[in-house]
Amino acid sequence: MRSEKPRVLVIDDEAEVRNSLRQTLSFLGFHVVTAADGWTGISRYAKDGVDLVLVDLKMPDVDGLEVIRQLKAQDEEVLAVVMTGYGSVDSAVEAMKSGAVDYLEKPLDADCLEIVLNRTLERYRQAERLRLLEEQVLRQGSFEGLVGVCPEMLRVYDVVRQAAKSDATVLIQGETGTGKELVACAIHNRSYRKANAFVPVNCGALTETILESELFGHEKGAFTGADSQKYGLIEQAEGGTFFLDEIEEMSSALQVKLLRAIQEREVLRVGGERPIPVDFRLVASSNVDLHERMQQGTFRTDLFYRLSVVVIDLPPLRARRQDIPLLARHFAAIYGGKRGRRTMEIMQETMMVLKSYAWPGNVRELENAIEHAVVFCDGKAISVEHLSEHIRTSAAAPGGSGFYGVSLGEVHEKLERQYLQEVLARAEGKVSEAARLAGVSRQHFYYKMRRHNLSRGGSSVGLC
Fold it and tell me: Residue 259: phi, psi to the nearest 5?
């Protein structure tokens, strides 16, 4: 915020309204600036560092619609709330199309006024915090290699910070390509073990016999070809962190041996007779829900509970689409830099395609897609044509989750209708609660319901 008290600019040609609002808003804790006409208000907005504008819709010199348009030209992020007399709701809705964030009906109710203004300012503060966080992530590159500012990823960062302070075993669950090894590395790098080794092994990449020898080591002559003694990977993680990827692929026999290693902090080499103590911290990961595997009887219950002291569930990329632009720009900077083009841009149309694609391979697939685009981009701006044909056609597929090839207006209408239906369902058809969840006034939510021809239950209704 620009000042300790939020600054509100009141633009209204009626002196009685201006004075009344000045008293009410001052009592509510706002710093108030007033203007008796639209042009004066437009001038004061730039001069006085205003946080929020209250503008009357009907004024003699220039109406509220034009005031909002002029303010938007000055500041695309302007927060304007329109005031309108009873019966002028359609005009208020038109103002909101022009960029207003909400509207109030005259005569103004003090409680309603406070709720609308505080809600609007809180939305501003949240957007500002998110913007600053995005800038920080881009400036620093990532959080220990992880990029994202959606609520789900912020929760992951918090768990990583807390888990790193202890030696608790951590289980990371998530689809392929979501960044499970990066999370494991982040935990190691933030722990007191960071000066020692981080030893990863993929259980799905090795046969049972080879995996046992790799994990626990073997003595000379333990089996054909064992010509010398070999230290296992768990031993190599002495003092550090041992990371077991795709642990769901481990056989039941090996699960028993691993459980003993975790419980006793010692390993028995293949062909060995004496257990060897090892100080290590275990982090495991799985592409599937291990709790379900345990219930199905394909994963040992005792091992599951040993592994799941701390559980981190990584969201798939399709569940954190707001991070796609941030990730795409991050990878464009990396691969553009490798080709001597550190200012690689991604065109808006290209970003729409990226956001509408399903990303079954998650972040890893997105990274590969951006690297592909950089290779085929001769300039500094990545266009749709630089993406692979598979991504372009999948994003444009009729009936799919993608919107590429559909107008921006159609996309907005489709998403808005879907959002309204979901909010109404969550609010069990209570419009006041749905409006609160959506962060808009009850009147505005009703308008949106009428616009999309929706009933309280979220279904379509007949037109009158």
Answer: -60, -45
Q: How many CB atoms lie within 10 A of CB 32?
A: 19
CB atoms within 10 A of CB 77: 10
How far is the C-alpha of 442 from the C-alpha of 430, rounded, in Å?
A: 10
Nearest to 78 by CA among 8, 136, 5, 4: 8
Give the C-alpha separation, 440 to 119, whole Å.
8
The DSSP letter of residue 108 is P
Q: Which CATH class is domain 154-313?
A: alpha beta
pTM of the prediction?
0.60
Please answer whether residues 229 and 219 qualify as being in contact, where contact means their C-beta atoms are separated by less than 8 angstroms: yes
Q: Can you name the CATH fold of 319-396? A: Helicase, Ruva Protein; domain 3 (1.10.8)
User: What is the CATH architecture assignment of 7-127?
Assistant: 3-Layer(aba) Sandwich (3.40)
Q: What is the pLDDT of residue 58?
A: 86
Would you report the helix, strand and coil content of the chain in percent, each value rounded to 5? Answer: 50, 15, 35
Confidence of residue 206 (pLDDT cuts 50, 70, 90): confident
Tokens 């888990």 belong to residue: 163
- Residues 216 and 177 sit within 8 Å (Cβ to Cβ): no
Residue with tokens 């993406």, as numbered in its chain? 387
* 317, amino acid identity: L
Mean pLDDT of 257-270: 88
Query: What tokens does 42 get?
Result: 């437009």
With residue 252 as reference, give the H or E element that holds it. helix 252-264
| Strand pairing category for 241-245 and 198-202 | parallel
Q: Which residues does 289 contact at the CB level (< 8 Å), separation at least 6?
A: 173
In single-letter form, the type of residue at position 454 comes to L
